[in-house]
Amino acid sequence: MEYFVTKNQKRLRCGITTGTCAAAAAKAAAALLLLGQEYQAVMVHTPKGIDVSVPVFLSLDTEEKAAFMVRKDSGDDPDVTNHAEIYVSVERIPEGWERPERSFFDERFPNLILDGGIGVGRVQRDGMEQGLGQAAINAVPREMIFQAVNEICGLAEYHAGLLILVEVPHGEELARRTFNPRLGITGGISILGTSGILEPMSERAIIDTIEAQIRQFQAFGGKNLLVTPGNYGQKYISEYLHLDLGQSIKCSNYIGDTIDLAAAYGMQNFLLVGNIGKLVKLAAGIMNTHSKTADGRCEIFAVHTILCGGRAELVPEIMHCINTEEILQILEENGLRQQVCGSLCGKIEEHVRHRAGGRLAFGVVLFSERFGYLGQTAGAEELLCLFRKEK
After folding, report:
1. Rounded to an integer, what distance in angstroms lies between the CA atom of residue 332 and that of residue 24?
2. Which of 14, 165, 295, 328 has a C-alpha 20 to 30 A away from that of 51?
3. How far apart are CA 5 and CA 11, in angstroms?
4. Is 3.40.720.10 the CATH classification of the domain at 4-198?
5. For 254, which DSSP code?
6. Do 118 and 85 meet the contact criterion of CB atoms below 8 Å apart?
């Protein structure tokens, strides 16, 4: 396929989701089984409204069953599943055959049954859209697969039962590099995609994963959310704050979106723990901390240094620093580190309170690799005590 988007003044080629791959393979398998037509590529209509031609490769051809493989093309977004082989078989269902309890059925397509096989994950925790034990094939891909096979059934005037099985031979290995183990999905990858098109550097996929984690907390009755941007934060939470990582989620750069989602799902308490190199941006109201969105770290430190009585000569020193650890060292040498970090925490509290809009209680804890604990907002201590009691 050749579909492009422009981001940061670069023209980037889009890819296709695992859901689109599965729909294409299913359509090709159904066409061979019911129409006797073998395709090298099939057209899939995606929810984004774009028709894509997807190359397909024959895997199995018998009177009762056909299967095709699609090799996932992630475009200019080389994600974990790039080049993964998605196999889908379509098989005639004999009379008297009973539908497996955990398979998918849609009343709009009464003759079709969908399930996942080898390498497709199984849901083992509440809070996901699928039921316990069902294959991790999300709602939009399920509909795409059903629609694709139903289209062929219409052409063939075929109304008897068909079993559609999605498999990913190396899916279990790939899944270890995804969020699936953390989400309670075992045995393989998920078949995903809300638009059918994989846009490079997609924020949506990350935010959707954050939402899935929060939804699981809600499903288990959780009201207290421990949040950190990434691995450094999790290490600090575990080794220095001695809190249970089982209560934590990663928010990456999307702090504002995570606050919004936490409030929307009824969370009552929100404790954010992170490295000052990322969280200092909150002091300027920057709620997406990705460097491509905004930086301003030196400028923020420089302003708060002056506000705390620092000499004007420190400003150019700070502005020439390449990271926050260097800035903290300058502040330490001038006896200003604690005061400036306190000032930053005050401003962070102001901006986070504004984003939260009174919908939940919150606290923020700052640390650095070199100096360790740096400071916290006014509400953080109460929440730290709360999480320690829950441990």
Report:
1. 60
2. 165
3. 6
4. no
5. B
6. no
Q: Report CA-CA distances (Å) from 249 to 100, 290, 368.
A: 34, 18, 20
Distance CA 322, CA 155 (A): 63
Q: DSSP letter string over 118-182? A: TEE-EE-STTSSSPTT-B-B-HHHHHHHHHHHHHHHHHHT--S-EEEEEE-TTHHHHHTTSSHHH
Cβ within 8 Å of residue 128, ≥6 positions away: 136, 183, 184, 185, 212, 215, 216
Sign of CA dihedral 270, 273, 274, 279: positive
pLDDT, residue 95, reads 83
Domain boundaries, the chain: 4-198, 212-390
CA dist 377 and 257 (Å) reads 20
Q: How many CB atoms lie within 10 A of CB 379?
A: 18
- For residue 261, pLDDT over 60 is answered with yes
**pLDDT tens, position by position, 109-160:** 999 999 999 999 999 987 788 999 999 999 999 999 999 999 999 999 999 9
What is the token pair recorded at 51?
A: 């028709």
Q: How far apart are the first and last CA of the chain?
A: 50
In the structure encoding, which two tokens stand for residue 168, read together?
């990913």
